[in-house]
Amino acid sequence: MPARVSDSFVLRTYPFREADLIVSFFTRDRGKLRGVARRARKPKSPFGSGLERLSRVNMTYYERENRELLNLSGCELIESQFALQSDYARGLALDYFAEVAEQLLPPHEPNEKFFRLINSALDYLRGGGETWTAVLYVSLWAVRLAGVFPEMRASREAAEIAEEMFAKPLKALEPRPWTKSTASDLRRNLIRAMEQHAERKFMTVPLLEAL
User: Cα separation of 97 and 202, whole Å?
Assistant: First the structure.
């Protein structure tokens, strides 16, 4: 079969055999996919640094009949998140974004809005935006786009902030004072709903809570 090329975000990689990786990646046109990257752990890998968490790449792959995993032949790096990963808090936020996409997105179902959500959050962080603003914005929109947005039992202030974040794009949000209890209240409700939908605990949440 002819090779396909998709604009993609790398979500997660797993060691496979001696030198290969299993890669979970989110494509703009075909949704979340998984494939085997042959020789990806070798020094002269055809993938280079393109398989880092949330790297945006043009992924080249082949489909094989009756095989669940695709055959990945290479990738062209569009944008690396290396600069964001050098900051601990932002690096945790990237792990959280990737984990949310990995757990909430069904395989083989395109979701253009979710793709743009990840891209806008990364643009916002690269522009110096607040880490928690991006985390909460992604959390709110992720559960909404997944169709599991819960009934919010939160303070009036937290509810107003949530509505404002839905109504405005990320770059248009203006800083506003809010208390630690307000942030914790809103964050706790969102993460609980997302964990219930994914039927597991998010690994990065305790680390983000500790910041």
Answer: 11
Instruction: Choose among 135, 119, 6, 132: nearest CA to 61.
Output: 6
- CB 154, CB 186: distance < 8 Å: yes
Does 90 share its domain with 181? yes
The 10s digit of each residue's pLDDT in 126-178 is 999 889 888 888 988 888 888 776 665 666 666 666 666 666 677 676 666 65
Q: What is the pLDDT of residues 24-64, one digit of tens each?
A: 999 999 999 999 998 888 878 888 888 999 999 999 999 88
- Residue 36 tokens read as 């085997």
Cβ contacts of 59 within 8 Å, gap of 6 or more: 5, 6, 8, 25, 27, 72, 75
Residues 131 and 177: beta-carbon distance below 8 Å: no
Closest CA to 116 of 143, 145, 90: 145
Give the domain range for residue 112: 82-209
Distance CA 208, CA 143 (A): 18
User: In terms of domains, do 186 and 134 share one?
Assistant: yes
Cα gap 115→56, rounded to integer Å:
11
